[in-house]
Structure formats: structure tokens, C-alpha cells
Write a structure and sequence with these properties.
Helix content is 82%, strand content 0%. The protein has 364 residues and is mainly alpha-helical. Among the domains are: 68 residues, Serine Threonine Protein Phosphatase 5, Tetratricopeptide repeat (Alpha Horseshoe); 118 residues, Alpha Horseshoe (Serine Threonine Protein Phosphatase 5, Tetratricopeptide repeat), CATH 1.25.40.
Length: 364
Amino acid sequence: MKKFSWILALLVLAFSMTFNSCRPPELEGAIVHLNAGRDDQALELAQEATVKYPENPEGWFLLGRIQGKKGMVKDMVTSFDKSLGAGNTFTKEIELEKNSYFGKYYNEAVSSYNAYIKLEDRESEKAKKLLNSVIENFQNSLLIKNDYMAHRLIAVAYQYQGNNEKNLEYLLSAKDAAPDTILAYIELGYYYTAKNNYQKAAEYLEQGLAIDPDNVQCLTMYAQTLDFADRKDEAISAYKNAIAKNPNEKALSFNLGLLLNKQANAIEDDEAKKKTLLEEAIVYFRKAYEVDPDLKETYDILSTLLLQLQRYEEAQEILDEGVKRFPDSASMWQNYSFLHAKLGNTEKANEYYEKSKQLSGENK
């Protein structure tokens, strides 16, 4: 029994010596140094090994591990790629290493971002360091894996820094990283809207709607940018589409009413068409009024349009409520005065006109 154990031990030793003898001495030394925490010496020997044995996948894998540990992310990815190019021996190990480092840098970036958001003083040195940490860590994670959210949050960090060029660069790279993600196009729409480049904003929002035609946020922005870009007919159609998807958004109906009113007032030689547009504008101002009865401007414009079209009964209904809700509004009392003049109530018309002038004088 003892003899058998002795023979087995010799066989294990022999096998171990045979196996290790297949590994270049530079690699053996690199592993020893790495395990002992001597990363610089390990790196030097691993580099020598890859120069001498460029077709050895273990050499490149070990070099990548050391580079990752030293924060040399770009070099790590290159070494891992060369290991895989030399053979698939370390495929699983490389995937684990890459996922581990991606998670490390990604989580550190998110932590810095959350810490920045909580700061009261976002102009402080601490705030600047946190934003730099967000950018640096997300950039490291992107060296490992192309990720939409990493691009997006780098863009946000540059926006906070006031770096418009980099902000746009990463908004575009986010879109390229996830071309089927509508939020990427919405954020480009926001970017160009803020720059008053409404044509460009509309282009990206239109691309977003090709991905998700029912997205309410994108529909709303698209209608507004077409309006701002003076593409009025397209804007009217887009507003109607957005309202159909989001009937409770008061701004949509109000803005469409304004646009139709503007279109009507631009007509000089077609009273029938002008009246049709004004009547349609009234429909949408009524929708805005129904959604939010506390919006003063709706009462002002809606009552004016109703008076213009001689729809006095409807105008009185709106103005009766309007002067109760907004008793200090000079314009409301002025319209109320005009209404009563049309109804033949001269005394009330004069009283309300004087009230309007009084309020107007106080507001100056």
C-alpha cells in the first residue's frame, strides 16, 4: 500500500513537471509575481512572453488580466482579443473578466452620478470631480462593451458641464448604440430644440416616430417643433395626431388652437376659409378649457373668437365664468364689456369697460 502511494505521488509530480514545462518561463514568472501582488514585475514578464510567443493564447490572457488589474482597460481588451485570436482556450475566462470589469466601472459611474445629483452646490470642486468620475468610468465601461445607457449618461454629464460639443457627440453615439431606442431620438430632439434648430429636431423626432408611431412624448415634441419650424400644415396634422393619442394634454389643444387662429388671421381674401379655421380653433380651445378650466389665456382667446363669430351666448357662458375665476384680469373685463355692448346692455358695457381700464392702469 505504501509502495502504491509512493508511485502515485511520483506520477503526480511527473505530470505536474511535464505540464508546467509546457508553459514558457516568462509566463511562470509572471504568474508567480501576479499571485504575490507584484503587478509591475508580472506585467513586464507577461509582455515579454507575448513578444516571444505571440501565438500562445495564455500569454495574451495573462497579460490582459494584469492590465485589467492595473486599470489599463483599453490594453486589456486588446490583449483579450489577441488571446481569442490565437485560440478559444480562455473564452469563458475572458468573458467573466470583461463582465466583471464592465460592472465595476459602470457601477462606479452610476454611484458618482447619483452622488452628483444629490449635491446642492453643483458648481463646487466636489461636483466637478464627480462629473469627471462619471465620464471616465462610463468611458472605461464602453471600452469593454457598447452600452446605450453609458453613452446617454456621459452625454448628460457633459451637458451639466456645459460642453455642448461632447454632449451632442455622446447623444449621437447613444443613438448609434441603440438605433431602435426611441428615447435616443427624443433626446436629440430636445437638444436641437434647445438650440432653436427646430428643423433638425423635427428630423430626429420623425425618425423616432418611425420606430414607435404611438409614443406620446415624441408625438407631442414633433408637433411643437414643426410649429416652431413654421411648417404649419404639417404641424396641424401632427398636433391632431398627438391629441388623439393624448387627449388630456392641455398644451396640445391650446397650441393647436393658437396655430389655427394664426392661420385664419393670415387669410385676407377668403372669408369662408377663415371662418372655418376660426371655428376649428374654437373646438380645440374648448378642449383645452375642458382639460384645464384654470388656464386664464384660454378664456381670453376663446371668448375673443366667439365674439368675433358672433356666438354671443357661448361667449357669455365663458366670460361669466372667466370674470369669476379671474376678477383682476383687465382683458377679461374688456371682452365682457364688448359682449354686453353687442347684447345692447349699454350700462353694463360702460361699467365693465371702466373696470377694465382701472385694472389695466393698476397693472402698468
